[in-house]
Amino acid sequence: MLRLPPYTYHRPRTLREAVELLAEHGREAMPIAGGTDLVPNMKHRLFTPTHLVALKGIPELGGIDLRAHDEGGWELTIGAGESLASVAGNVEVRRHLPALAKAAAHIAGPQHRNRGTIGGNLCLDTRCTYYNQSEFWREALGYCLKKDGSVCHVTRVGAKCVAAHSADTPPVLMTADARVELEGPEGRRTLPIRELFVADGIWNSQRAHNEIINRIIVRIPGPDEDLGPVRTGYAKLRQRDSIDFPLLTVAVSARFDPEGHVRRLAGVVTGLGSRPRELTRWEELATGEPLSDEVLEALGERAGQQCTPLENHIIDPEWRKAMVPVITRRALADLTAHAHAP
Known about the structure:
- The chain is α+β, with helices and mostly antiparallel strands.
- Among the domains are: 61-123 and 164-220, Uridine Diphospho-n-acetylenolpyruvylglucosamine Reductase, domain 3 (2-Layer Sandwich); 231-337, Enolase-like, domain 1 (2-Layer Sandwich).
- It has helices at residues 15-25, 38-43, 84-89, 91-96, 98-105, 110-115, 118-122, 135-141, 169-175, 283-286, 293-306, 317-337; strands at residues 8-10, 29-32, 51-54, 64-68, 74-79, 179-184, 187-192, 212-220, 231-237, 248-256, 262-270, 277-279.
- A 5-stranded antiparallel sheet has the order 4-5-8-6-7. A 4-stranded antiparallel sheet has the order 9-10-11-12. Strands 1-3-2 form a 3-stranded parallel sheet, covered by helices on one side.
- Helix 11 runs antiparallel to helix 12 (317-337).
- The longest helix is centred in the last third of the chain and has 21 residues, at 317-337.
């Protein structure tokens, strides 16, 4: 049986109190919301904090709110403490960001979605087949660069950890130009989610250890004479169609003109490297064109050319690379299915 290491559990009632506790105890403290990722990692001795700061009882971290924006359209605000099940089932999220609702609904199983939070999904630790193992297993291997060792067993060198970013909601939020609000000892700051992640598998976030994600803010432009509303799509590859972490996730967003031609298109893929990757040079293939079968095929092939999976999953990387165009086309087809919805 895997047991938790000893720790002191703190239950702050305000966000400021939680931040002060993290600052007081430094690297010995970690925030915990649903605990669906942190608790298993603690049992494997991947993290051994001596202080846990609970976020579940803080009202400031809750709520999903939609309000009109001064410049037209809407602004959707999601408290970081909202459960994944709540996000997946929210009427306004399903209406304005259906890909986000779909991504939240496809994370793990229903028990995990009821406990896990969207803020926790943004903070999900990177994963690797050589890292997410028991301490006994890792010790027998000689540990790894991410935890207690000096060599990455994926790249065979010790220069850089390439554990995979495996969260489903960040790619969708990136394509929607969302922002994240962080609360720390120095106050509050806002950061585009595009800038939140860095290429470092050991700690792949711009979030400091003593900062807490407060809320997620998404600006949703309204339709105008030249552009329709933002449409979103999402597709996921995993070993089983429930529970498992993604082997690959693709999120896309687009805006069309009244004739159904692409005016703007964005795509993000994750599950491969230590941060989500924005797919590039799509505009030259799609701008001014309808998303026909030929365009979908070309976009999928270009995505496949840009992505090189590593051996950070138990599944063969060559097969995962071959699936990149397939999953990209599925995400684009998901977007197309809603492209002319009211």
